[in-house]
Amino acid sequence: MVFNKDAASKVAEYLLQVKAIKLQPNDPFTWASGWKSPIYCDNRVTLSYPKIRTYVRQQLASAVIETFGKPDVIVGVATGAIAQGALVAQDLGVSFAYVRSAPKDHGLGNIIEGVVNSGQSVVVIEDLISTGKSSLKAVESLRAAGATVLGMAAIFTYDFDVAHKAFKKEKCDLVTLSDYDVLIQQAVKSGYITESQQDLIKSWRMNPESWGKLIEK
Q: How far is CA 216 from CA 99, 133, 187, in A?
């Protein structure tokens, strides 16, 4: 669910403006998974631009409060959402912690860094939702620690059907600042891509695993 439609367009505009999201339908990126993709996203880039960083922080904070209420703890997912989560926690005046993708291989072997006590309410912050696998792994770790996960707020989602199903299965509500459809609309409006290119980009989300093979034919 997109938090605010007007803000979603503004967020998409900013992400394209600073190249946090890049669109290259005619020269696709190759993801670590091997997928060919017309889009590449690294929302950590927004942290380098004070105006945009502030806007994203304010929108995430508003999304958290209006969707879930004020939690005891804001938790970022390592590594992309650590800084974003800390900014939101500061804005809301609540505790902050973050979740690793795997337990630390030395010292205390923590997977949760910071203080999250059993029974505390938590909202998870993510920078990007892809398949949802790593994001929901963080939710699982927090629940195992006894936390009550109210939901998750993210900057951007590819809006894959597999992610929708995964979040529904884990009974975790998700709110995002922007999504794939809004981004494509904004990219056409700003002249970042042509109208003819948008169909090619839209087709990727329907079948990302085999899209690369289809465009090579």
A: 39, 29, 24
